[in-house]
Specification:
There is one protein chain. The chain has helices spanning 5-9, 11-14, 18-35, 46-53, 57-69, 88-112, 115-134, 137-153, 158-168, 173-177, 180-199, 202-226, and strands at 43-44, 73-76, 80-83. It is mostly helical and 231 residues long. The chain has 2 domains: 13-81, Orthogonal Bundle (Arc Repressor Mutant, subunit A); 86-225, GntR ligand-binding domain-like (Four Helix Bundle (Hemerythrin (Met), subunit A)), CATH 1.20.120. A hairpin with a 3-residue loop joins β2 and β3. α11 (180-199) runs antiparallel to α12. Keywords: DNA-binding, Transcription, Transcription regulation. Residues 19-86 form the HTH gntR-type domain.
Length: 231
């Protein structure tokens, strides 16, 4: 079970502003929808959700407004917010967009990345490997974020990286971080990517990048099929 959001942020949301707390709630609910924990057609009750996440009703309401704008939930008059349909095509579209943007970023990194940055990526990938071996979900997610943050920083394409960051919000971290097979495969692909970047091999680097997202899409679709979201 996930810890209440307020306990993860610290007392009173760790001093965060209200909009930041609502972002945390939106991220939690988005992950639950994308992982199938909240199925299409499920009503998200304000009181129940606030109690479960350990927050007041206000950030729940604001988070639902955000998710409604993203098409993740729908507001039914006199009934409340309900989880919107999620199709295989939706998953494929999300990962296609991520792969398309990431491919462009990787190509930019080939031309710009330095030996020092490649060494930093290598160290971060080894940290990811260690986190995968320990099986600590939070550590795996943090190590993944650190690796991609540094990689995208090397590209000089800050706005494009920003778009990828926002699309990546739809990848439910707990599905991947709890899958050791995915972690091991990702670490291996990262090593292949780093080697290609060292050789300035754009073709291999971009292929590996697309493979990462293709694999992630297949794993998420398999998980959603397993929990019966489309039956």
């Amino acid at each position: 079970m996930n810890a209440p959001i307020t306990s993860r942020l610290g007392p009173n949301g760790g001093g965060r502003r209200r909009d930041q707390l609502s972002d945390e709630v939106a991220a939690q609910l988005r992950a639950e929808i994308m992982s199938g924990a909240l199925r299409p057609g499920t009503y998200i009750r304000l009181d129940e959700t606030a109690a479960r996440l350990g927050v007041s009703i206000t950030p729940i309401r604001e988070a639902l407004r955000t998710l409604r704008g993203e098409g993740m939930v729908q507001l039914e008059p006199h009934r409340g917010h309900v989880v919107a349909p999620l199709t295989r095509g939706d998953i494929e579209d999300i990962f296609w967009l991520q792969a398309t943007i990431a491919r462009k970023l990787t190509a930019a990194a080939v031309d710009r990345i330095t030996d020092a940055e490649l060494d930093e990526l290598t160290a971060l990938n080894e940290a990811l490997a260690a986190a995968v071996d320990r099986g600590v979900v939070g550590e795996v997610a943090a190590a993944m974020s650190a690796f991609h943050r540094v990689l995208h920083r090397t590209t000089g394409r800050i706005k494009l990286a920003w778009f990828l960051y926002h699309v990546a919000r739809y990848m439910p971290p707990q599905i991947y971080a709890t899958d050791q097979q995915w972690g091991t495969a990702t670490v291996a692909r990262h090593r292949e990517l780093i080697a290609a970047l060292r050789r300035r091999d754009t073709e291999t680097a971009t292929r590996v990048t697309v493979d990462l997202f293709t694999d992630s899409a297949q794993r998420l679709i398999a998980q959603l099929e397993k929990v019966g979201i489309w039956t």
